[in-house]
Write a structure and sequence with these properties.
5% of the residues lie in helices and 65% in strands. It has 936 residues and is mostly beta strands. It has three domains: 117 residues, Immunoglobulin-like, CATH 2.60.40; 111 residues, TonB-dependent receptor, plug domain (Ferric Hydroxamate Uptake Protein, Chain A, domain 1, Beta Complex), CATH 2.170.130.10; 567 residues, Maltoporin, Chain A. It has a 26-stranded antiparallel β-barrel. The chain has a six-stranded mixed β-sheet with strand order 9-10-16-17-14-15. A hairpin with a 2-residue loop joins strand 19 and strand 20. Helix 3 crosses helix 4. It is globular and about 95 Å long. InterPro entries: CarboxyPept-like_regulatory (IPR008969), OMP_b-brl_3 (IPR041700). It comes from Nemorincola caseinilytica. Keywords: Receptor, Signal.
Length: 936
């Protein structure tokens, strides 16, 4: 660390001086109707602060323009061409080069003939890789939330759980004026902010900080939505209060307040609820460092990443519809910029407490060799609680136009309590004949505490030569978990062939990890179109994993000596050195980049329960990557991305001890595991036709894994033992295509999406090789009709077909899922609105899962709005009118199909009072509701 500090100091001293520079604003102007470039169009930049012309010019023969200004800041861009409606936009100049992409214009004659335009701007604009929706062009009802607005935007879907998919990809971040907003749960933003506060909705793939700084694409992108607020909302306060009381003790309270002033943001929110309208979307599960993540395929063919905590680490704090929840969550957000953006500070605090009581059943069907099937049927009763605090802060100092320092830090603490009781029947069917049958009764308690803190310091500098940059990144990552619990288990043979096996143990588990890393990245232009990037980094990671089990003595007390069969205590010290080289080619219509990192990781594993026995491992890791983007036109593009990476086994997978938290399913680690190598291929195609409101998006991904970490399963007298092994040939794939358009001269929109997925796993079952396949395809058309924002109806049926096969068993698990979602609302006189939604789900039975799990969930509401601008709303709603909501899910993976049924929220009524308040100080500019014909 001493040498790293000296290096940072020397770099700061070398790069502080910087020469003044001008700022370039460029783009192109196109006749969108005829797709012709407009030459000699007038381009003027006007400073917003004093309305002084800062720069002017004209487009060339190719329709392109380039003007320069001397200062950062906001400018009005005005483009004029004879016979065309003027284009006016606000440009925020922050970087040395601001590329506005294609700026569409339309002739006045065509505009008057085909459209009655009352807004200042057109509905959609393409700026490079960003799709920009003008919020006021998409009418929503008074008091609508941002979520209601997003549902109106072409190419964006919001499901009933508030998850957002934009152009075929899940949205991972929702920003407000470019700022992280509470950072952990996008639904807090989309359901808390009012739609009428939003000026623009921008959808784009957010590049990594390093790629954004250097301009060299590293392939790391995050699908992001940015909500740009209206100017009047930035000079006052606004918010939402909701109080709701329902039948059977249901309640739902929510509050959000926002006070913005220029660049300063301050917001608070709070939620208290025992309905499914509020949940905790914590993103910190992996940061706490316990449990593991798995990829599964849902009934409708989508991939999901599911976080699976260890039984004794405590519940993970999420609510996904399973059980009856009680939620209390809140937070504060602060952000500010000052000295013309030289200093930038952002901070978020979140608190969350949630309790869930679950009463459910889990049935699992395993395909086994010799035409046999193993089935486990488990009844679970569980009460869980989680209490969490989280904090993150970011500070950036732009020392000058070429040098900046950025520091980010996030930290969290949590406490969990879990009490569970299980009753499991485990039996075989061999060619329809019954086999061994075991029953397991077990009680598990777990109390956990965890904390983490991560810090990242980045120093960046741009040299006078364009494309030459240097970045130094220093990181610290720390996590710690402590969990104590008890296990009581009784295994009995239904045929009374063996005596009962009784286990009483206390569990003490502890894990920690502390890592320091440093990385330097240098970029150099080889020509005007070719750039190269070189990097080197070093990481030191020291971790501990201790899992101790203590048996019960004859006195009833727990022993002080651990049970060696079910205990271990390991330390891992890892030293990693990595370097990389990549190239990028940038041209007018396409860019291409490729390169690779290579690293050497040295592991030292010490078994402290076995006289400090030490084992060393050496891994050479390769991280190749390539990215290609081609633009057929300003509204049509194709992207291909490849990434290769290695993945080391986790500590849990390598520790050679038996995990007996589920005595009928014993897990064994394997210290001889090798690292995985994963090849990931992703493709995406986008095509827009703005004036026709037509969109087409398609994406596909495919990955293969060499030395995949899989399992070897064996069954001895009904007890299943699983050992981690390496296999080849695992792969997965996913494809999506979405299409939609608005029927000309109507308020009718039609579209749909087609999904397909495949998942192939190799493993070993009872000493025989096995290959399992999970395939799914789904089709979901939709029809939407909106009339003057007074009548709205949407119909979206979907059918999904699932096939699960296993080479060691001829019995295929094949079934279909049919869903039908119909929703609508109508505005009546006296500010009254009624609405209803019907969600129908029909699942095909299987030879094993023969129960009827068809559901028709019908919701309805009626609202009455008050006050001049309808800020006050009284809402009466009924949830699950037919009382048919069933907690149910079915997932296929590998050689098993899992079906869950559980208690969940059933029919209730709710009476709510909602107040949307806003205050704009005297002199603040009002929101624009109309104006001259200007096309953007």
């Amino acid at each position: 660390m001493k040498h790293l500090s000296i290096l940072l100091f020397l770099v700061v001293c070398c790069v502080l001086p910087s020469a003044a520079q001008s700022y370039i604003i460029k783009g192109s102007v196109t006749d969108t109707l005829n797709n012709n470039k407009l030459s000699m169009a007038s381009v003027v930049l006007i400073r917003t602060a004093d309305s002084v012309i800062a720069a002017h010019g004209r487009t060339g023969n190719d329709g392109r323009f380039e003007v320069r200004v001397k200062q950062q800041g906001k400018y009005f861009l005005r483009i004029a061409f004879p016979g065309f409606a003027e284009h006016i936009d606000e440009v925020d100049v922050k970087k040395s080069t601001t590329d506005l992409g294609d700026l569409p214009m339309i002739s006045r004659e065509y505009l008057l003939k085909e459209f009655v335009l009352t807004q200042q701007v057109a509905a959609i604009k393409i700026k490079g890789d960003t799709t920009e929706y003008m919020a006021d062009s998409f009418k929503v009802k008074e008091g609508a939330t941002v979520e209601d607005l997003l549902k109106r935007l072409p190419g964006i879907q919001v499901d009933k759980n508030g998850q957002i998919v934009a152009q075929g990809e899940a949205v991972q971040k929702v920003l407000v004026d470019g700022e992280e907003f509470f950072s952990d749960d996008p639904k807090v933003v989309t359901r808390g902010l009012q739609a009428d506060a939003v000026k623009k909705v921008q959808v784009y793939d957010k590049k990594s900080d390093q790629a954004d700084f250097t301009g060299i694409d590293d392939g790391e992108k995050t699908r992001t939505i940015n909500l740009e607020l209206k100017e009047d909302k930035k000079k006052g306060y606004f918010g939402k209060l909701e109080a709701g009381a329902g039948t059977d003790g249901y309640f739902q309270e929510q509050a959000m307040a926002n006070a913005f002033k220029a660049k300063r943001q301050f917001s608070v929110f709070g939620i208290a609820s025992n309905t499914d309208k509020a949940g905790l979307g914590w993103e910190d599960s992996d940061k706490f460092g316990n449990g593991s993540g798995t990829t599964e395929i849902t009934e409708d063919g989508d991939f999901i990443n599911r976080f699976t905590p260890d039984e004794f680490s405590g519940w993970d704090g999420r609510y996904n519809g399973e059980g009856l929840p009680q939620t209390w969550t809140g937070g504060t957000h602060y952000a500010n910029k000052w000295n013309s953006g030289e200093h930038h500070l952002s901070a978020n605090y979140r608190y969350g407490k949630q309790k869930v009581n679950i009463d459910g059943n889990t049935d699992v069907q395993y395909s086994m060799p010799n035409d046999s099937i193993r089935v486990t049927e488990t009844h679970k009763e569980q009460s869980s609680s989680s209490d969490r605090h989280g904090f993150d802060v970011m500070y950036e100092w732009k020392i000058d136009t070429a040098t900046s320092v950025k520091i980010t830090s996030n930290a969290g603490v949590k406490a969990t309590e879990t009490r569970s009781e299980y009753s499991t029947d485990n039996y075989f069917k061999i060619k329809d004949a019954p086999g061994a049958n075991l029953n397991n009764l077990r009680q598990i308690t777990g109390d956990g505490n965890a904390q983490f803190i991560n810090t990242d310091l980045i120093l960046r500098h741009r040299f006078p030569k364009k494309g030459r940059t240097l970045a130094i990144d220093a990181k610290e990552n720390y996590s710690e978990n402590t969990n104590t619990g008890t296990l009581f288990s009784v295994i009995s043979d239904t045929f009374a062939l063996t005596p009962d096996l009784v286990t009483r143990q206390r569990k003490d588990n502890y894990s920690s990890s502390l890592a320091f890393s440093g990385k330097a990245t240098y970029t150099e232009p080889l020509s005007k179109t070719v750039f190269t990037e070189v990097n080197y980094g070093i990481t030191v990671n020291n971790s501990t994993a201790r899992n101790l089990s203590f048996d019960t003595l004859a006195t009833g007390q727990y022993s002080d000596v651990p049970n060696t069969t079910f205990s271990n205590d390991f330390t891992y010290n890892i030293l990693s050195n990595a370097g990389g080289l990549s190239f990028k080619f940038m041209y007018k219509t396409y860019n291409f980049s490729f390169g690779s990192d290579v690293s050497r990781a040295d592991y030292v594993q010490t078994d402290r329960t076995n006289t400090n026995n030490t084992t060393t491992y050496h891994f050479t890791n390769l991280f190749p990557r390539a990215n290609f983007t081609y633009r057929f036109g300003k509204q049509t593009s194709f992207n291909f991305n490849y990434r290769g990476n290695t993945k080391q086994p986790t500590i849990t997978q390598m520790q050679p001890f038996l995990q007996n938290t589920d005595p009928l399913n014993i897990t064994i680690g394997n210290p001889d595991l090798r690292q995985e190598f994963v090849n990931e291929f992703n493709m995406r195609f986008n095509d827009y036709k703005i004036l026709q409101s037509r969109f087409l998006w398609a994406s596909a991904s495919f990955s293969t894994t060499s030395n995949a970490i899989s399992t070897e399963q064996s069954n001895d007298s009904g007890i299943n033992k699983t050992r981690y092994i390496n296999v080849d040939g695992n792969y997965s794939g996913y494809a999506f295509i979405g299409y939609g358009f608005k029927v000309p001269k109507t308020d009718l929109s039609i579209g749909g999406r087609l999904n397909g997925s495949t998942y192939h796993i190799n493993n070993i079952i009872n000493r025989q090789q096995n290959s399992s396949n999970t395939n799914s395809i789904s089709l979901a058309p939709y029809v939407s009709y909106t009339k003057d924002n007074k009548f709205d109806i949407r119909w979206e049926p979907q059918i999904a077909y699932n096939v699960n096969t296993s080479t060691n068993n001829p019995v295929d698990v094949t079934y279909y899922i049919f869903t039908n979602e119909l929703s609508g609302s109508v505005q009546l006189p006296k500010k009254i609105e009624i609405g209803s939604s019907v969600d129908m789900m029909f699942r095909q039975k299987t030879p094993i899962f023969t129960t009827n799990n068809n559901v028709i969930k019908w919701n309805a509401y009626v609202t009455k709005k008050f006050l001049k601008k309808s800020q006050l709303e009284l809402r009466a709603s009924v949830y699950d009118i037919l009382n048919q909501n069933l907690g149910f899910s079915r997932i296929g993976q590998g050689n098993m199909v899992t079906q869950n049924s559980y208690n969940t929220i059933r029919r209730y009524g709710m009476l709510s009072l909602i107040w949307n308040f806003t205050h704009t100080p005297v002199g603040a500019p009002p929101a624009q509701d109309g104006g001259t014909m200007i096309i953007k």
